[in-house]
Design a protein that fits this description.
Blueprint: H1 6-24, E1 28-34, E2 40-46, H2 56-62, H3 78-91, E3 95-102, E4 108-120, E5 123-132, H4 134-148, H5 158-175, E6 179-186, H6 189-196, H7 198-215, E7 221-226, E8 229-235, H8 239-254, E9 267-273, H9 280-296, E10 302-303
Helix pairs in contact: 6-7, 7-8
Catalytic activity: 2 GTP = 3',3'-c-di-GMP + 2 diphosphate
Enzyme class: transferase
GO biological process, one term: cell adhesion involved in single-species biofilm formation
């Protein structure tokens, strides 16, 4: 009796569009098998992003030995991925994570990974998909930057300052290192807006930010709190050194020509050093109190204690 090839022909015809779909589908479709002894292989790889795992010959080798696929995972993400794999293998739970992969050309891309496991022989077989989410990650980072950045000056805003201040307070408390905060604002800034207009006022704030930034270290943070109010966070800086920084800022601003005829701009500054155990609000209140004293005692001054 001749062998009936009808079913095979039908299967072949049906598989052609599926193969085409698999190769053109955005992302990477895969099966990953891990034996009880820990041997890994990828019996199936498809999708438009399959080249992230190398050329055709390299991908074919992954069907026999899949360990090299993990060489492309960013070193910072690799431990987290392995924890997710182990947890998934033990509980047969879904892997859902994000990792950076190095493309063959050397560039990095973020991929979202989702894989469902099932028992297979003496090991575990995952059916999964990876999707390039680099644009999404970049967009999220951009939104975070916008939420942390003052639109006018490009400086960190109050929200970002408070977050960094909390972090620095924790470090200072843990290690006993000094930390100082400077609060300052422009003296009589309302006069600038009233006389030369708000556009000129905005220009002044932008130039002020640049002048102050030029005097600070890379680890210092200059932030705009709002209006003409600014703050400087000085890690690893005791109060005497912070007062020197405040004086240099004051002198720099007082000596600069902002293009305002017959008018020189000055700033008043309040300085406070963190006392171990005090709250964020207590530190800010002391710096603000010293700023008030600076303004009440004639402005264009830097004050670091209530006795000044």
């Amino acid at each position: 009796m001749p062998f009936d090839t009808t079913t095979l022909e039908q299967t072949g015809e049906a598989s052609q569009p599926l193969a085409l779909l698999g190769d053109r589908l955005p992302g990477l479709i895969f099966q990953c098998y891990r034996s009880a002894e820990g041997a890994i292989r990828f019996p199936y790889l498809a999708g438009a992003d399959r080249r992230v795992l190398g050329d055709a010959r390299q991908r074919q080798r992954l069907a026999v030995d899949g360990r090299h696929a993990f060489d492309r995972v960013h070193p910072e993400d690799f431990p987290r991925l392995m924890v997710a794999v182990e947890r998934s293998a033990k509980s047969l739970s879904l892997i859902a994570t994000q990792v950076r992969l190095t493309r063959p050309g050397g560039s990095e891309a973020w991929f979202g990974v989702r894989a469902q496991p099932e028992p297979h022989g003496d090991g575990t077989l995952w059916h999964g998909i990876m999707v390039d989410i680099s644009e999404q990650i970049a967009h999220q980072a951009h939104l975070r930057e916008l939420s942390d950045t003052d639109e006018l000056t490009g400086l960190p805003n109050r929200r970002k300052l408070m977050s960094c201040l909390d972090h620095q307070l924790s470090l200072s408390c843990r290690h006993g290192t000094p930390l100082s905060l400077i609060l300052f604002d422009l003296d009589h800034f309302k006069r600038v807006n009233d006389t030369w207009g708000h556009l000129k006022g905005d220009e002044v704030l932008g130039r002020l930010s640049e002048l102050c930034q030029e005097l600070l270290r890379g680890e210092d943070m200059l932030a705009r709190l709002g209006g003409e109010e600014f703050a400087v966070l000085l890690p690893l800086t005791p109060k005497p050194q912070a007062l020197n920084v405040a004086q240099r800022l004051r002198e720099r601003v007082a000596g600069h020509d902002f293009g305002l005829p017959r008018h020189r701009l000055t700033i008043s500054l309040g300085v406070a050093e963190y006392r171990i155990g005090e709250s964020r609000e207590a530190l800010i209140d002391r710096a603000d109190c010293h700023l008030y004293i600076a303004k009440e005692s004639g402005r264009n001054r830097a004050v670091g204690s209530a006795e000044e």
